[in-house]
Write a structure and sequence with these properties.
This protein has 241 residues and is α/β, with parallel strands linked by helices. Helices cover 27% and strands 19% of the residues. The longest helix is centred in the N-terminal third of the chain and has 18 residues.
Amino acid sequence: MANLRTAKKDLRCLLKQTLSQVSDHSIQRQSLAAQNTLFSLPEYQSAKSISIYLSMPKGELTTGPIVIDALRRGKEVYVPYTHKADAPASDAPASIMDMVQLKSEDDFDKLEPDSWGIPTPSEASIAGRKRCLGVQSPEHVGAEKPKGSGERLDLVVMPGMAFDCRFGRLGHGKGYYDFFLKRYQRTLGDLPGVETQMPFLVGLALDEQVLPEGEEVPTDPSDWRLDALIAGDRPIRRHSS
């Protein structure tokens, strides 16, 4: 396990250095290409409810146009909201991520940047927003809740530090998405009459974030694999199963 943690840390350091050298022009060009690829994806077009990460100012594909497009198509749009758990369950990290609904384009425009420069819903606004997993008191964060007690997601657009051609994903090291998906599976995984238990997971990446063919990101059983990977202006990769 120590070797795995070291391998993940080393790869993050390497990618951080690589991404610092990617020009704004390249990010804009790749973002536009990736957005158009996502918009053509049948799973995106048919999704009624989606989660979209809100991008940092530098070092990753921009997602603002995806948020606007989804809202204009009448989709329910959920975005990450990270907060501390006062008394987490034994398998829960100290800080966790929920998905909360954006109400409109105006709501999106009024989000304020956090310390990373990421547009984020204010703490004061959370009580008035729908939450994907329903309302959870701090003492029960991470505990299993009754199935069907929240809002279902059809598709999740995921960020990451590194990706591979076998749909492996390396996040930023906090475990936010992996733990959110675990909680989602507990809570909403077996909704009656729904064939696909989990949302369709799409990774968005700059070309520089994808490892060469034959190389894989270091993963463990808690790491979720993607259903599709969209990297810059590359052709989309889809899981065959």
